[in-house]
C-alpha cells in the first residue's frame, strides 16, 4: 500500500562560526549559529534545537537555540548561538554534533553533523570519522593530491568497456545491476566480491536490486547501504560501462553521456577501484577515485546531486555535496576534476596503559602558513618488558622506516629518511606503535620540508 509522507525535512545548509576567520579554533571557546534548509514537502513551524556532544574533543557551554518557521524550500537561521569549548585537537579533526529538533515539545528530527577543527579551507582534505579521507585534485598542500587523468572505456570513444545491463538507460527509475568484482575489495572494514551499479550515478557494495533515483543526504537511512555515490541524481539516457585493467590492477565503472532528467545536461563520470593487494593501505580499506569528465550539478528542482561515500550501517560517511551544500573543505564540483577517497586509521587505539605516546599532530601548522620542519618527534613515556617498535608508512601502506623502542626511552626523532637512509618526499605518513606484536596506537603525521 503506497503511502505519501508529507512533512518538513531539515538539512543544515550553513554552519556559521562567530570568529573573524570562521573557524573552530583549538584551546578556545567558540559560538556558532545554524542555517537550516527545509528540503521537505511541507512548511515547518518554529522549532527548538538541542545540541548533544558526539565526540570528546569539545565540551558544551550552551546547548539550546531556537529557529523560526521555514517555508518549504526556504532557509532559516537560528535566533541564538550554541557555544562550545574546544580542546587541543588536531587541525582537521572533526567535532561531531547531534542536533535534536523539536516542535511543540515533540521531537521531529535528529541531525548528526561534523565540522573540522582548526584552520582549514577549500584546499584542505576532508576527513571522515572512520575509514577514509577525501583529497581533491584541486587541493593544495604538503600531501599528494590526485591528478585528473580520464581513462576512457566507452567503445564509442576508443575504450574497451563492456555495457552494464546490456542497454541504454531509458526509464525514469533507471536500473540496478549486480556484477562481480575482479578482486576482493575491503570497504569500511568489510570485504566485498561484487557490487551493484545503478544508472542513477551510484554503486552499492554487495548485492541489491533497489534503484533509488531521488537522492538524499550522506550518511542517511534513505538509499542503499555501503553506497558509493559519484553523482547520485535522476539520470536518463547514456550508457554505463565496466572495465578491468589487469595491467594497472584497477576496475572502472563509467557513466557515459547520461542526461540529468531535469535539465537534460550531459554528465560523464567514472569510479575507479584500486586492487588493495597491489595498492595496500594501513587499514586494508581500498582506495577509490571519482573522475568527472563533464559534470553539471544543476538539478535545482530536487536537491541537486549527492556525492560521497557511506558505510554498511549508514551511520558514517564522507559527504562532498548534497542540495548544492558543500563542507568548508570542498571545492564546488566541476568538470575535469578528481576526488580520491583514501583509507586511513584516524582513530587512535590505546588499549595498553603501560605504553603512552604523545603523538605528532596531522596538519598542526596547517595550512597558512606551513611551518617547515624536517623531523617528526615522538615523545614517549614507556614502561615495558616486551619488545616495542614504531613503524612509519606512506599513504600506499609501504613501510618507510622502523624504530625499535627500549625501556624508559623518552623520544624518537624521525629525520625524514627511509630505512636505506634516503630522504622521503613531504606529505602525509602513518605511524603504528606496536608492542608484543600488537598495534597499540595508529595515527597520521605530516612531514614538511
Question: Which descriptors apply to this entry?
Answer:
single chain, 449 residues, mainly beta, Immunoglobulin-like, 3 domains, nine-stranded antiparallel beta sheet, six-stranded antiparallel beta sheet, 31 strands, 45% strand, globular
Structure at a glance:
The chain has 449 residues and is mostly beta strands.
Give a written overview of the molecule.
This protein has strands spanning 10-17, 28-38, 47-53, 58-62, 64-67, 75-77, 82-86, 94-103, 106-116, 126-127, 132-136, 162-163, 176-187, 190-198, 202-205, 227-232, 235-236, 239-245, 250-260, 266-274, 288-294, 306-310, 317-321, 337-343, 355-358, 376-382, 388-393, 399-405, 411-414, 427-435, 438-447. The strands form 6 sheets. Strands 10, 11, 12, 17, 18, 19, 20, 21 and 24 form a 9-stranded antiparallel β-sheet that branches. Residues 345-372 have low confidence and may be disordered. A hairpin with a 2-residue loop joins strand 30 (427-435) and strand 31 (438-447). The chain is mainly β. It has 3 domains: 10-119, Immunoglobulins (Immunoglobulin-like); 155-343, no CATH class; 355-447, Immunoglobulin-like. It starts with 9 loop residues before the first strand and ends with a strand.
How would you summarize the topology of this molecule?
Blueprint: E1 10-17, E2 28-38, E3 47-53, E4 58-62, E5 64-67, E6 75-77, E7 82-86, E8 94-103, E9 106-116, E10 126-127, E11 132-136, E12 162-163, E13 176-187, E14 190-198, E15 202-205, E16 227-232, E17 235-236, E18 239-245, E19 250-260, E20 266-274, E21 288-294, E22 306-310, E23 317-321, E24 337-343, E25 355-358, E26 376-382, E27 388-393, E28 399-405, E29 411-414, E30 427-435, E31 438-447
Antiparallel strand pairs: 1-2, 2-6, 2-7, 3-5, 3-8, 4-7, 8-9, 10-11, 11-24, 12-18, 13-14, 14-15, 15-16, 16-22, 17-19, 18-19, 19-20, 20-21, 21-24, 22-23, 25-26, 26-29, 27-28, 27-30, 30-31
Amino acid at each position: 500500500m503506497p503511502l505519501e509522507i508529507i512533512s518538513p525535512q531539515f538539512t543544515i545548509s550553513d554552519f556559521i562560526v562567530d570568529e573573524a576567520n570562521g573557524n573552530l579554533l583549538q584551546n578556545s571557546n567558540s559560538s556558532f549559529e545554524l542555517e537550516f534548509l527545509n528540503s521537505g514537502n511541507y512548511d515547518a513551524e518554529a522549532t527548538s534545537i538541542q545540541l548533544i556532544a558526539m565526540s570528546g574533543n569539545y565540551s558544551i557551554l550552551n546547548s539550546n537555540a531556537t529557529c523560526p518557521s521555514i517555508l518549504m524550500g526556504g532557509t532559516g537561521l537560528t535566533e541564538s548561538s550554541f557555544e562550545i569549548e574546544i580542546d587541543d585537537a588536531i587541525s582537521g579533526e572533526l567535532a561531531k554534533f547531534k542536533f535534536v529538533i523539536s516542535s511543540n515539545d515533540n521531537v521531529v528530527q535528529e541531525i548528526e553533523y561534523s565540522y573540522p577543527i582548526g584552520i582549514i579551507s577549500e584546499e584542505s582534505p576532508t576527513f571522515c570519522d572512520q575509514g577514509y579521507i577525501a583529497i581533491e585534485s584541486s587541493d593544495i598542500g604538503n600531501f599528494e593530491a590526485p591528478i585528473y587523468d580520464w581513462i576512457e572505456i566507452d567503445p564509442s570513444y576508443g575504450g574497451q568497456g563492456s555495457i552494464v545491463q546490456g542497454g541504454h538507460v531509458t526509464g525514469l527509475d533507471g536500473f540496478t545491476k549486480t556484477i562481480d568484482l575482479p578482486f576482493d575489495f575491503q570497504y569500511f572494514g568489510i570485504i566485498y566480491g561484487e557490487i551493484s551499479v545503478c544508472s542513477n550515478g551510484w554503486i552499492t557494495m554487495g548485492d541489491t536490486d533497489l534503484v533509488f533515483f531521488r537522492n538524499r543526504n550522506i550518511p542517511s537511512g534513505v538509499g542503499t547501504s555501503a553506497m558509493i555515490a559519484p553523482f547520485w541524481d535522476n539520470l536518463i539516457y547514456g550508457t554505463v560501462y565496466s572495465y578491468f585493467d589487469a595491467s594497472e590492477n584497477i576496475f572502472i565503472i563509467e557513466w557515459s553521456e547520461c542526461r540529468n532528467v531535469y535539465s537534460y545536461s550531459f554528465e560523464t563520470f567514472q569510479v575507479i577501484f584500486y586492487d588493495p593487494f597491489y595498492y595496500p593501505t594501513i587499514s586494508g580499506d581500498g582506495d577509490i577515485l571519482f573522475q568527472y569528465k563533464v559534470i553539471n550539478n544543476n538539478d535545482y528542482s530536487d536537491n541537486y546531486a549527492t556525492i560521497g561515500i557511506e558505510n554498511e550501517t549508514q551511520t558514517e560517511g564522507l559527504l562532498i555535496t548534497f542540495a548544492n551544500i558543500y563542507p568548508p573543505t570542498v571545492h564546488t564540483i566541476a568538470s575535469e576534476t578528481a576526488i580520491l577517497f583514501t583509507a586511513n586509521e584516524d582513530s587512535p587505539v590505546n588499549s595498553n596503559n603501560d605504553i603512552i605516546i604523545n603523538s605528532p599532530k596531522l596538519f598542526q601548522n596547517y595550512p597558512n602558513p606551513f611551518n617547515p620542519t624536517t623531523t617528526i618527534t615522538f615523545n614517549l613515556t614507556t614502561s615495558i618488558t616486551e619488545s616495542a617498535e614504531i613503524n612509519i608508512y606512506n599513504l600506499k601502506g609501504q613501510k618507510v622506516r622502523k624504530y625499535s623502542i627500549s625501556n624508559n626511552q623518552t623520544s624518537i626523532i624521525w629525520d625524514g629518511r627511509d630505512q636505506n637512509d634516503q630522504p622521503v618526499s613531504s606529505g602525509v605518513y602513518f605511524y603504528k606503535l606496536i608492542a608484543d606484536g600488537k598495534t597499540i596506537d595508529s595515527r597520521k603525521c605530516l612531514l614538511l620540508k
